[in-house]
Model the fold of this input.
Amino acid sequence: MRKYSSKYKEFIDLLNFSNGKYEKIDVFKDFVTIYAIAIKNKMYFKQEDENIYFDIIKKYKKSELDIFPKLVNALIELYYRERDEIRDVLGEIYYEIGAIKGNRKHFFSPKEIGKLNSLLAVGKKITKKEFITIYDPTCGSGVLLLEAANELMRKKIDYTQKAFYWGQDVDFICFCMAYIQLSLYGMPAIIILGDTLTLQEKKVFYTPEFFIGKWDEKLKNKK
Done:
């Protein structure tokens, strides 16, 4: 039996709620999909996303749906357990449950590379009246963007006010993971589902902070 990191064991154990009826990887993918849509649809509703949400929950019995609020609570606890560091929690869990192997393999930026790139991205001095824009065209679970926010926090710069984040990925689950994580950390961001090379955009999700902080106006003014 695979041993999981102690800090993620509670969450991963919840994914195994069905005793083999559902694969934990499939439960994880369903969870991040409906949670991303739930966050997004509270800010701006789209019926096509709501349809995806209900198509997923129809797979589960009413009694089984009780697991999803528990997963939300367990996930939020992981994010806020260490408030002095911004972490790629979902990306690490995705790796822990064995989703990144075989035909499920998806490439993620190692955390060390994320740190290096974040140092380059936020290296310039930020004045009181300006903000920087940080873009990752193959964002995966959002590790580079999260590490950039980490670097701003180390420099005692408000990463929710002095930076705007753009992320894009061709993989739908990565798209959802990045959106959830940047939303939970209060980062103003646009996350795009699509191929950077072909300029294809299938979906665009705006984090809650995008609306709360009126970033649409800020971006227009900067242009």
